[in-house]
Amino acid sequence: MDEISADSFNIRDYLRLELFPHFLCPGCGHGIALRALLWAIHELGIDKNDLAIVSGIGCSGRTGAYIDANTFHVTHGRPLAFATGLALARPDLEVVVITGDGDCLAIGGNHLIHACRRNLNLTCMMLNNEVYGMTGGQASPTTSATRYTTTTQSGSIEPVFDACALAAAAGAGFVGREVTIQTPALKNLLRDAIAHKGFSFVEVLSDCTEIFGRKNDLGESPEMIMTQKSTMRPASYGVVGGNIVDEPFRATNLKTGILTRTDRPEYGAAYRAHAAGIRAARKS
Amino acid sequence: MPSQSTARDLQGNQACALGAVAAGCRFYAGYPITPSSEIAETMSVEMPRAGGVFVQMEDEIASLGAVLGASMGGAKAMTATSGPGFSLKQEHIGYGAGAEIPCVIVNVMRGGPSTGLPTRPSQGDIMQSRWGTHGDHSVIVLAPASVPEIFSETIRAFALSERLRLPVIVLYDEVIGHLVETVEIPAPGTVEVADRKWATGAAESFQPYAVTDDLVPPMARPGDGYRTHTTGLTHLESGFPTQEPECVERITRRISGKLVHHRELIESYEAAGCEDAEIVVCAIGISARAARRAVNAARAQGIKAGLFRPITLWPFPESAFKSATASARTIIVAELNAGQLVLEIERLCGGARQVESIARVDGEPIEPAEIEAKIRELSSHG
Amino acid sequence: MENFEIRFGGSGGQGLQLSARLLADALIREGRKVARSQSYEPTSRGGLSRADLVVAAKRIDYPLITALDVLVLLDQLPVAVSMPLLRPGALVIADARRAGEIPEGDHDLHLLPLSESALALGNERATNIVALGVLAGLGEVCEHDTLETVIRDGVPPRFLDLNLRAFAKGVELGEAGGPGR
Ligand code: SF4
User: Fold this and answer.
1) Tell me, what's the pLDDT at A235?
2) Is the minimum CB–CB distance between C75 and chain B shorter than 8 Å?
3) At B276, which CATH number?
4) Using CA positions, which residue lies closest to atom 1 of ligand 1?
5) What is the pLDDT of residue A226?
6) Ligand 1: distance of its center to the CA of B65 in Å?
7) Reported CATH class of domain C4-175
8) Per-residue pLDDT tens for C92-113?
9) What is the mean pLDDT of chain B?
10) N or C end of chain A: smaller count of CB under 10 Å?
11) Domain final position from B157, B185, B213
12) How much distance in Å is there from the Cα of A24 to the middle of ligand 1?
């Protein structure tokens, strides 16, 4: 299925093994996403020394520390703000943000839409597991209707964000979505996202087995991951809806794969050209 | 390029921006807010000229986030704001203190709380600048009282921030920020640009938060092969999080110990006429300017009055204050708030001296006559 | 006058900040220290506007005005708030047309056709420069030649001719002394 052999990819080359065992619960989808990300980085031939991972707060954000690169674990909701400064100051680095649905869409929502608008060369991987796992299972802006969490004990009634539709509407140059069970496809999507010059947003539908899965009786991790297969549709199915979804998110026919790819001007290059013009005009 | 210094009439906020440029600042991120916006406006012109980056962020929080990100990448970076924005930046000030990321934050004080008095002066952030973020933390706060001093203290803010790896706050009131005075701008390239200590040596054994003699660990620049981890979690010398009580204590004490260890480098103050003073006025910013005139007027009337002006507001120059007030019977603290600096002075005096407060909260600066009257009233002379 | 405080008061858009800046430049060239402050409320058109200078031979302790030695009024708006700030015997220069109602008091009032003169020269917006000319003509605040030099250096070339004529007209009014009180 995968066009490039996985043989040469050894995930251990990209991990800080001295930190193991890791903190993720057994069966947590975030580990699969991390694997896909590192695989994509390997395929792109990015030097670990030139890779900067900026992550926020939550289970998603904690994964950054395991990557053997320049890793920055910052404040809740603000990894895109930090990454914006880092990428503008250091265009030579490959900057990848790891964030979660709460980190990115709730407390960090403002930074997301403006990062999309600016279109600075960054990749944002948002791990969507519909829940605040690290703080014990509270509802997030993507918790599907009817789902139980510790703050929606009788089932959630709030509508959810379609993060991809939101990112596309806000101007992200590259938008894609994938499920963890399609690991090679996720790797390919992340590879294309990182290679894209501009702001790339990738939503990974991940599973919080230990908290969200248990609370909602979704079975163990094998059952949860198989559910992905039955509810997700490849890109040719379904449509990207509006920014707001009123029905259970994962029950809708979610498009996966690359959803948007445009060649809007990349902000960093545009800024440098603009500044060079100012300096040239002053010299003459 | 001029090879000599040039005298320029500058507004306080412009002087702040130009001081930053002279200090080597090459990254500015900000958000519009009165009465500090002229700093952002000036930086938007200066940064591209100097080969740096200016970016207007989506909010106050993102501004300091971007500054920290740029600094983690190796750039000297600054943001500026005022009361409400300063409140919003507090979490990131804590991040800078804990993860030891150099950065400069300017707060041009206006009346508060909340939206308060956007165009009126205040000195209501004296305590917020010290204790605004949660938890024990170390920050330096510099409080210039004139336009030339804004220029020079902004340069010093960068030097301290880079050398000691911590956020430095430049704090002044709206009056000083909008005042126009003459600043002697040094010839380009003549200002000593302080750079942080960069990591050298083998990457394998490098400890990003190692305990060094000066308590300031060298910093690893991304791309140089060190591949370190930076986090706001309490972390070990290795950079990775810990909750081990003895490690937590060791790390916390080293970080706050930087301020004690480098006290001489950090502290700065003006003491005028304090040697024989019976009454010493203590103030910062525009209030210190009023105090200086009041003290001179009192002296002309034969009253032994002096001025103590902390230029480094935090850590407060304790021993300098104590020796400057050795002969004083009374300390008058003049400030544009309901009484903040006076708390520190009372603590330092420990009941051994009479401490009097002039605390103005009507959005107007304290006039020299107000202080002069107080000096006369408290003097044994009159 | 070696140490003094002066205010330019009027309404937004009258170029008060420019006249204050030009006078400050001239005084600095003469070796004085100057601190300049202004009303900060956005008043690009209409609304009270003021520009204050504190001038000293040596260091300026307190940079804000406390007692005015000179008050220049181009509009009625700042009159009420500024009169209580006058030092006894202060010099007051007011535009006869737009700031004609100046209360009696212990000051040296010069009610002059500032804006009328600017209008006669073809542009009312040169009123601020006429006022500077008056200050030069009265000869108490700043040297004529220094002021003229800073005007030459400090105003855009296309307005230079108008401004120089406005300045000369002001000098003439100042030298005549105007109808003192
Ligand atoms: S709490 Fe949920 S999201 Fe967090 S590590 Fe465990 S399974 Fe994963």
Assistant:
1) 41
2) no
3) 3.40.50.920
4) A133
5) 87
6) 26
7) alpha beta
8) 999 999 999 999 999 999 999 9
9) 96
10) C
11) B185
12) 6
